[in-house]
Amino acid sequence: MATSKAAIPPFEVTPLDVISAVSSNARAAFRSHKTKDLQWRLNQLRKLYWALEDYKPAYLAALKQDLNKPGFESVFTEIDWVKNDCMFMIDNLETFAKTEKLKSPHVPTTYSMLNFRIKKEPLGAVLIIGPYNFPVQLLLAPLVGAIGAGCTAVIKPSELTPASAMVMKEMMESRLDRDAFAVVNGGIPETTALMEEKWDKVMFTGSPQVGSIIARKAAETLTPVCLELGGKNPAFVTKKANLALAARRLMWGKCLNAGQVCMNHNYVLVDKDVVDTFIEFLKIAYKDNFPNGAKASSDLARIVNVRHFNRIKKMLDETKGKIVMGGEVDESELYIEPTAVLVDSIDDPMMQEEIFGPIFSIYPVDTLDQALNIAHEVHKTPLSLMAFGDKSETSRILHEMTSGGASINDSYFHGAVNTVPFGGVGDSGWGAYRGKASFDNFTHLRTVCETPTWMDRFLRVRYMPYDWSEYRF
Ligand code: NAD
Q: Catalytic positions (predicted)?
């Protein structure tokens, strides 16, 4: 029976002295070769799917406890999200895992008689470290890729969302293969201890600061890493944009999970001729979303803890910008009102730091050139980018500014479909997952060449002494 709301156990940190054993279990399970069997992988994916269904009430309660996450968001961005990932992987696994045969290699005729193939091999025992903002999705969606690829895995949820972490531990231990998959709970000491172990890949989702610590540690043992990081994502709103639509969609992006979304826009570069109208539309969107005020609504999550609440509040206190919408904060509820701040300098804290909360900074610009220059200066390789304008303007923005992913005339909806690759570029992330990329993320493409024994006479040319006299000098 899955944990009920009342029964979510108190947070229990995994003892440091068992972490080495957890990691060697995962390595031993991989060495048993059972994960290489496709049926075994499919069974684990089916078990994960049904476990998520059975544990839905427990996750809903845990996510409410951890982040006051609205039930709708918990289902669609966490629980059903991962269930859809499971279905996608189950439906496609056989195709993804199939050894590819090279039909007609572009090589001399003799070579075409060799049997070249590309085997899809699981990388091995992998470590998956997650952040707090989507405590189910961002641990288990990578896990779907690891299971599909045939890896064993240890996952480390964020200690900032302890209820979700405990539900996950119980679910994993009771439903999945216990040798192959494990959960380690804890914070910095436990993650540090996990990073002392040898892994075949580490997948980290979190802040760039910690991502850099993980990458440096992994480099000591040349362990490959996939990093899914954050950044300072721009949104562009030109004069020709549909302003009402831009305001409504950007407002939605800022309010989902109370703005604690890595792809969220950190700042909006708005043509100065339309900035007042844009702000008016934002206020309308606010009212439409929260007719009785955001604080009274059960559809706005809360900030994860006092430290993050104070971090965001400090930005509001220190900005030189003008608050043009919202601005209320209440520490007792970890509530931050959806807020818009008009700024005029890239040195403003609103522009310099990742906000990761329900606050807009709006920067009026004279031209699209100026907007692009500011975006480049603030962060030249953001995780996402959102462009509102006419076709030629949005094409120009896409052409002149890179990002991990991008949405045209929308908030970060490019990240909403889990069958396309998701990842950063440059310092917003290394590697990608979701869809087939989830499988590839944990797969080694191993080229195998099988040379028929009878072929040696055709290969005579490669043996010494070479008889191509024109090349002998
Ligand atoms: P974080 O980097 O503080 O923590 C992530 C994980 O690292 C946690 O499990 C934590 O326990 C561990 N950790 C923290 N400090 C550590 C240290 N010094 N050594 C070893 N491990 C450590 O991130 P967060 O605050 O939980 O999440 C917010 C950040 O994550 C934001 O920057 C956001 O943009 C980013 N994020 C990125 C994505 C993405 O897919 N690109 C998704 C969600 C969040």
A: 228, 262
Burial bucket for residue 71 (CB in 10 Å: 0-12, 13-18, 19+) = middle
Contact status, residue 271 vs residue 87, Cβ threshold 8 Å: no
In ligand 1, the atom with minimum distance to the C-alpha of 231 is: 34
Report residue 175 as tokens.
Answer: 């439903």
Q: What is the largest distance, in Å, between two alpha-carbon atoms of the chain?
A: 89
Atom of ligand 1 nearest to the CA of 156: 9
The CB density around residue 313, as the number of other CB atoms within 10 Å, is 16
Q: Best substitution site from 85, 210, 262, 263 to test ligand 1's pocket, by max atoms within 8 Å of Cβ?
A: 210
Q: Which of 86, 151, 255, 262 is catalytic?
A: 262
Q: Kindly report, residue by residue over 364-405, the tens digit of the pLDDT.
A: 999 999 999 999 999 999 999 999 999 999 999 999 999 999
One-character DSSP codes across 313-377: HHHHHH--SEEEE---EEGGGTEE--EEEE---TTSHHHHS---SSEEEEEEESSHHHHHHHHHH
- State both tokens at 210: 């910690």
Q: Please confirm, yes or no, whether 78 is among the known catalytic residues.
A: no
Per-residue confidence band for 442, with pLDDT thresholds at 50, 70 and 90: very high
The pLDDT assigned to 111 comes to 72
pTM for this one?
0.96
Q: 1 falls in which pLDDT band (50, 70, 90)?
A: very low
Question: Between the CA of residue 208 and those of 214, 336, 376, 428, what are the distances in Å?
Answer: 10, 24, 18, 7
Question: What number is the ipTM of this complex?
Answer: 0.99
